[in-house]
Amino acid sequence: MDDDGSDLTSIGRDKDVQSLDARLKAAREREEGQSRTPPQTGADASYRAGNRVLADLVGGLAGGLFLGWVIDQFAGTRPWGLLVMMFFGIFVAFRNIVRNAGHGGG
Q1: Residues 6 or more apart from 86 whose CB is under 8 A from it?
Q2: Buried b / exposed e across 46-71, counting CB within 10 Å, b at 16+?
Q3: For the purposes of burial, counting CB atoms within 10 Å of the CB of 89, is it exposed (0-12), middle (13-18) or buried (19 or more)?
């Protein structure tokens, strides 16, 4: 009788495990459905890419000018540090823009 009783409880446990697996799967699907971001429209992606290009250009230029000004103040090389670092900042900005364009903007 002990063998029959243990078989019945294992059968009941198998059904419970299967039921739990089904409920977990359903919960995961619901969670994935809620956590998905809505698809981006073309205008939204283009707007973000344009802002990224603008930020790269302004940041590269401003960063280069600032670093050049600091170099000129401490080294006394006015205006050469400013000019060299400005062109270096522009170069870095364009490099970032080209690199981001090659990766699809992301």
Answers
A1: 61, 64, 65, 68
A2: eeebeebbeebbeebbebbbebbbeb
A3: buried
Q: Which two tokens stand for residue 58?
A: 């302004």
Can you say how many angstroms the Cα of residue 23 is from the centroid of all Cα atoms in its chain? 32
pLDDT digits (tens, 9 = 90+) for 59-77: 999 999 999 999 999 999 9
Q: Is 105 left (phi over 0), alpha (psi -120 to 50) or beta?
A: left
Taking the alpha carbons at both ends of the chain, their separation in whole angstroms is 66
State pLDDT tens for residues 6-49. 565 666 678 888 888 888 888 888 888 777 766 668 888 899 99
Contact between 85 and 73 (Cβ < 8 Å):
no
Degrees to nearest 5, angle at CA 18 with 12 and 19: 90
Q: Report CA torsion sign: 49, 53, 55, 59.
A: positive
